[in-house]
Design goal:
Elements: H1 16-25, E1 31-33, H2 39-42, H3 56-62, H4 73-79, E2 83-85, E3 99-101, E4 109-111, E5 116-118, E6 131-133, H5 135-144, E7 151-153, H6 154-157, H7 166-173, H8 185-194, E8 200-210, H9 213-219, E9 230-234, H10 238-254, H11 268-283, H12 286-291, E10 292-301
Parallel strand pairs: 1-5, 7-8, 8-10
Antiparallel strand pairs: 2-4, 3-6, 9-10
The structure holds zinc ion.
Length: 311
C-alpha cells in the first residue's frame, strides 16, 4: 500500500525570509562538470569491452537546472541568485584561462555558491577530441570563484595510466620505489598552478549507481531532492563512502546487469599511498602531496542502462 507524502499547506503563509531559507536549503550541492566524460576513457576499456554506463546521460542530468527552478517564481529567484548556465563566454574570464574542447559542457547549469568545479579531461582524450587553451588554468579560474574544493581525475596527473593494462601493471609494481621523472619548466608551471589553491580532490575511481530517481533521492546521498547525480566523496569520509558503495552493490544485486563493476572498497590509506606514488613519480613534489586528497566519484544513472532486459 502506498503511503501518501505528507503535505504542508501553510508554506505560503510563512514570512518571506523563512520561505527563501527553505528554498536555499533545497538547492543541490553539485559537482559542476566543465566537460563530458567518455566511458571508454574513464573505465580504460578496449574496443571489445562493454561499458557499465553511458556516462553522457549522467552529465546531462547533472547539468540541468535544479528542481526548485521549476516550482514557482520565488524558488526560481533563489535558483538564479548565484546559478545559471554557460561559463565559456563570461566577459570577466581572462584569455589565458579559456579552454575549449570537443567534450565541452558549457551549456550546463552551475552555481558558484554550493557547487564545486570538476575536470573530466585527461591526456586520454587528446587523440580523439579537438581542444585549445589550458584546461588546468581554466579549472583554477573556475575554482577561484567557487567556495567548494575543485577536483580532477587521477589520470590527469598520470598520463601513462591510459596505456593498455596500466592499472594492472601498476598494481604489480607498486611495491617498487617510484622513479621520479625530471621536473621540467612546464611541470613547474603546472605545480605552481595547483598551488594557487589550498586543496584538491583527485578522483581515484568512478562508480555508477543505477537506481530510479525516487529511490536514490530517498537516500539523501544525491542532495536533498536527488538532483545532484554526480558526487565526489573524499577517501577520508569512510562512512559516506560506505553508504554509496552499499547502494551501488544493492542496485547491482537487485537485477542482472550487462557489465558488473569492480566495487572493491579500498582503505583511505591505500588510496593516499597510491596518489602519493603518482604525484612523486610525475611531479616529484612534496607540496602537491599535502594539498591533493584522494576521492571516489559516484554517478547516479536513472536510465538503468546497465540492467539486462529479461525476455
Ligand atoms: Zn547507466
Amino acid at each position: 500500500m502506498t503511503v501518501p507524502a505528507p503535505a504542508f499547506r501553510l508554506f505560503a503563509q510563512l514570512p518571506a525570509e523563512l520561505r527563501l531559507k527553505v528554498w536555499r536549503y533545497c538547492l543541490p550541492h553539485r559537482v559542476c562538470e566543465l566537460d563530458q566524460p567518455v566511458d571508454r576513457i574513464v573505465f580504460n576499456l578496449d574496443d571489445d569491452s562493454s561499458s557499465p554506463c553511458q556516462l553522457y546521460q549522467t552529465t546531462y542530468q547533472n547539468g540541468r537546472p535544479p528542481l526548485i527552478s521549476h516550482v514557482c517564481r520565488e524558488s526560481r529567484f533563489v535558483a538564479t541568485e548565484s546559478g545559471g548556465s554557460a561559463t565559456v563566454c563570461d566577459p570577466d574570464r581572462p584569455l589565458d584561462t579559456q579552454w575549449i574542447s570537443g567534450t565541452d559542457n558549457s551549456d550546463a547549469w552551475f552555481d558558484t555558491t554550493p557547487d564545486s568545479p570538476h575536470l573530466n579531461w585527461t591526456s586520454g582524450y587528446e587523440a580523439d577530441y579537438d581542444y585549445s587553451g589550458d584546461s588546468l588554468q581554466c579549472l583554477v579560474w573556475e575554482a577561484s570563484r567557487m567556495s567548494a574544493t575543485p577536483s580532477i581525475m587521477l589520470t590527469y596527473l598520470d598520463p601513462t595510466a591510459h596505456e593498455p593494462h596500466a592499472s594492472r601493471l601498476f598494481l604489480q609494481t607498486q611495491s617498487m620505489l617510484p622513479v621520479p621523472k625530471l621536473v621540467t619548466p612546464d611541470k613547474v608551471k603546472v605545480i605552481n598552478a595547483y598551488k594557487q589553491l589550498s586543496a584538491w580532490l583527485v578522483v581515484m575511481r568512478v562508480v555508477v549507481v543505477h537506481a530510479h530517481l525516487d529511490a536514490a533521492a530517498a537516500t539523501g546521498l544525491f542532495s536533498l531532492l536527488g538532483d545532484a547525480p554526480v558526487q565526489i566523496v573524499p577517501a577520508s569520509d569512510q562512512a559516506r563512502l560506505n553508504r554509496f558503495y552499499d547502494l551501488a552493490e544493492e542496485c547491482e544485486r537487485r537485477q542482472p546487469v550487462t557489465v558488473a563493476q569492480d566495487l572493491t572498497r579500498q582503505s583511505a590509506d591505500s588510496m593516499r599511498q597510491h596518489l602519493r606514488r603518482v604525484i612523486t613519480t610525475n611531479f616529484h613534489s612534496d607540496e602537491l602531496t599535502t594539498i591533493m586528497h584522494p576521492a571516489i566519484m559516484f554517478r547516479l544513472c536513472t536510465r538503468m542502462c546497465n540492467h539486462r532486459v529479461e525476455i
